[in-house]
Design a protein that fits this description.
mainly beta; 7-stranded mixed β-sheet; globular
């Protein structure tokens, strides 16, 4: 399974960005893989949002109401729409996939992308 992120960049606080993750690989089946977005920053390593094999979507409390996760199984993409961005949303965002269950951390994920940088300025 390969994951490729795109869409990061520099934005002012209050602005929006849309991250996209393309999942590929002959073994990938969205019905058996949980796909998540994680973010890392100095002193921070957290799950942002996940969609599990039952299509349940979970968000971190810090992003609820501001971020929206969407998955297109036909295109094997997982998009993260980020609105009302805050400075504390800055970090490197990673897309990751894990077989059957959502992993608790990026390091525990079976597969991960290279990451895309998000910087929110004040």
């Amino acid at each position: 399974v390969q994951l490729t992120e795109s869409g990061g960049g520099l934005v002012q606080a209050g602005g929006s960005l849309r991250l996209s993750c393309v999942v590929s690989g002959y073994v990938y089946n969205p019905n058996v893989y949980c796909v998540s977005w994680f973010r890392q920053a100095p002193g921070k390593n957290e799950t942002v949002a996940s969609v599990d094999i039952h299509d349940n979507i979970l968000y971190a409390d810090a992003v609820k109401g501001r971020f929206t996760l969407s998955r297109d199984n036909a295109k094997n993409t997982l998009d993260l729409q980020m609105d009302s961005l805050k400075v504390e949303d800055s970090g490197t965002y990673y897309c990751a996939a894990n077989f059957l269950v959502c992993s608790a951390s990026l390091d525990d994920s079976g597969y991960r992308g290279q990451g895309t940088q998000v910087t929110v300025s004040s």
